[in-house]
Amino acid sequence: MTSSGGPDVFACDSELKVGAGGHTRLMVSGGNDKTYKIKNVATGNYLDMYNGFSSENNPVVGWQGSNNISGNQGWHIVVRDTTNHYVTLKNTAGGTYARTPETVAGKGVVGSSTMQQFELIEFETGVYNIKVKGEDLLFNLADSSDGTQVKLKAADDSKNQQWVLILL
């Protein structure tokens, strides 16, 4: 799927599967060696490892788009469980994984050397929620200010919880 003149979105390299509870989950094929940018629908900002730092608990934030495909905004989506379609998100700049040390609403997403699994659940065609495995919490970007930390929030169908995955 390609928007006119735009980059390929994630759905062109994936297979959708209906999982438990009728949720559609994204089964990534070949995602282990490809890089994606993850764009928030409400703000237009991208998932960004703050300053590309690899330090433990470095915040994952929203930031304006850039053409830096291998930097702070580049993410490898790696399938870890093909049965349940769980993935990890590994930043290309810092080499750390997106992680939620505390799975509590309002707590921030950070970078970590420790992997954590997430579900990519289709909200509508080409738009996904990033859900913490085993929890009813989603990645949420509250506003468009550069450096706003991505935090966990219960599903509310807002565009702040919706993400487009763009193959680079």
TrEMBL record:
CDD domains xrefs: beta-trefoil_Ricin_RSA (cd23455)
Domain (Ricin B lectin) ranges: 31-97
Pfam assignment, any one: RicinB_lectin_2
InterPro entries cross-referenced by the UniProt entry: Ricin_B-like_lectins (IPR035992), Ricin_B_lectin (IPR000772)
Coiled coil feature spans: none
Name of the protein in its database record: Carbohydrate-binding module family 13 protein
Organism: Sphaerobolus stellatus (strain SS14)
